[in-house]
C-alpha cells in the first residue's frame, strides 16, 4: 500500500501558506514546493476542517472526489505534526548535532583552505610576472637591441597578469560567506520548531 503522504520532489509552485493558517504543513514551503504530496495520486496534501476536527487531506480527492484520487488519503492534523516533531527530535539528537557541527565546520574549513591556497598561488604567480615585467621595462629603457621582441613579451606578460587578476577576483567572489555553526545554534532552532508546533501562531511572529 502506498504511503498516505510522502515528501514532495516537484518543483512546480502551487499555493503559499497563509500566515494565519492553523496547519503548519499546508501550502508551499520556502522554496515553492508543496510540503507533502499524496502517496496515491501525487496531489498536494492540504489542511481541511470537518466540523471541529482538523485534517490533512489529498487536494485532488477534496476537489474532484474519487475521480481525482481513488484513495481519498487523509490524516489527522495532530498525528501528522506530532510525527514530524518526533522525527525532528530523533534526527537532531545530541550526538547527531555534534557530528553535524563537526562535519559542517570541517567541510567549510576545507573549502576556505583550498581557496586560500589557490589565491596564494595566484598572488605568487602575479609577483613573478611583475618582476619579469619590471626587468623588461628596464631593458627597454636602457635601449636594448631587441626592443621589438621585448615589447611583444611585455604585452604577453601583462595579459597573463590580467588573466590572473580576473581569476583571483572570481575566487574571492566565490568565497563561502556561510559562518561556522555551533551546537547551540542548532539546538536553538530545534527548540524554536518545538515551540511553533505547540503554538503555530508563533510562526507568524518569527516571520515578521
Structure explained in plain terms:
With 208 residues, the protein is mostly helical. The chain folds into 2 domains: 87 residues, no CATH class; 80 residues. Helix content is 57%, strand content 10%. The strands form 2 sheets. It has a 3-stranded antiparallel sheet with strand order 3-4-5. Strands 1-2 form a two-stranded antiparallel ribbon. Strand 3 and strand 4 form a beta hairpin. Helix 2 packs antiparallel against helix 5 and helix 3 packs antiparallel against helix 4. The two termini are 41 Å apart.
Please sum up the structure shown:
The chain is mainly alpha-helical. Helix content is 57%, strand content 10%. It has 2 domains: 5-91, no CATH class; 94-173.
Layout of helices and strands:
Blueprint: E1 5-7, E2 36-38, E3 45-50, E4 53-58, H1 59-64, E5 74-76, H2 77-91, H3 94-141, H4 147-173, H5 183-198, H6 201-207
Antiparallel strand pairs: 1-2, 3-4, 4-5
Helix pairs in contact: 2-5, 3-4
Amino acid at each position: 500500500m502506498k504511503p498516505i503522504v510522502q515528501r514532495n520532489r516537484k518543483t512546480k509552485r502551487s499555493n503559499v501558506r497563509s500566515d494565519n493558517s492553523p496547519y503548519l504543513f499546508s501550502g508551499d514551503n520556502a522554496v515553492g514546493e508543496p510540503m507533502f504530496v499524496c502517496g496515491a495520486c501525487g496531489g498536494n496534501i492540504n489542511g481541511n476542517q470537518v466540523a471541529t476536527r482538523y485534517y490533512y487531506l489529498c487536494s485532488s480527492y477534496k476537489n474532484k472526489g474519487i475521480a481525482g484520487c481513488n484513495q481519498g488519503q487523509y490524516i489527522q492534523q495532530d498525528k501528522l505534526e506530532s510525527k514530524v516533531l518526533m522525527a525532528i527530535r530523533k534526527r537532531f539528537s545530541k550526538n547527531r548535532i555534534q557530528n553535524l557541527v563537526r562535519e559542517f565546520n570541517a567541510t567549510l574549513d576545507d573549502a576556505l583552505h583550498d581557496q586560500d591556497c589557490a589565491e596564494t598561488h595566484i598572488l605568487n604567480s602575479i609577483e613573478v610576472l611583475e618582476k619579469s615585467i619590471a626587468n623588461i621595462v628596464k631593458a627597454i629603457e636602457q635601449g636594448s637591441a631587441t626592443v621589438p621582441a621585448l615589447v611583444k613579451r611585455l604585452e604577453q606578460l601583462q595579459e597573463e597578469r590580467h588573466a590572473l587578476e580576473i581569476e583571483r577576483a572570481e575566487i574571492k567572489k566565490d568565497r563561502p560567506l556561510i559562518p561556522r555553526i555551533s551546537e547551540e545554534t542548532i539546538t536553538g532552532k530545534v527548540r524554536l520548531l518545538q515551540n511553533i508546533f505547540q503554538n503555530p501562531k508563533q510562526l507568524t511572529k518569527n516571520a515578521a
